Here is the input.
Amino acid sequence: MRASACLSYAQRGPLFSRLQPAAPTGRAVGIGISAPQGCGKTTLVDTLVGRFAADGLAWHVQRDPVDVLLFEGWMAGFAPAGDAARLAGLDPDLALVDSFLRGYAEWHDKMDAWAVIGIDDLSHVCAWRTQAEQAMAAAGRPGTPEGMDDAAVADFVSRYLPAYRAYLPALYTAAQAGGVGGKPTLLARVDGSRRVVPTAELGAPSG
Here is the structure.
């Protein structure tokens, strides 16, 4: 399922060349990847570097200089909102989250370009997590023989959905305007099946 959001080698070259990051000579190009949990970020990163890593493969420690640094995460690119009243209306804990986001500016400033995977319906996140739990249970993953049932998944996902509601609209607006942090940005929308679909404009996701 995850691979459905990926492109072939021939397809991805022209697509990502549109980012046109401009990094100072002598250091790696930093590309930030912001995407919701479960949409296929890991598969996308594996595809970008030209391989699919097997589950359980040990991390490789790179000691030589690198040409490209990929910085990915479900909240990568989120910027402090600074609107206490709006945040409180979404969730009382978001004010604390907002204060911590200021510390991410140092990471974000190091990025030379961004790729943002967007969604228009937050229910996809819960569905993807449910699929992941079912797959882990079916595979007999050590430590999670049963996985979370649907109610547990819904409870777990509900704890971070307020952050999506608070910060995704501004992220999508930036991606469609001058770019995230003013950097070259590629925005792609995926549907519930993780397929890239055309979009004229992406706003606040429903759900």
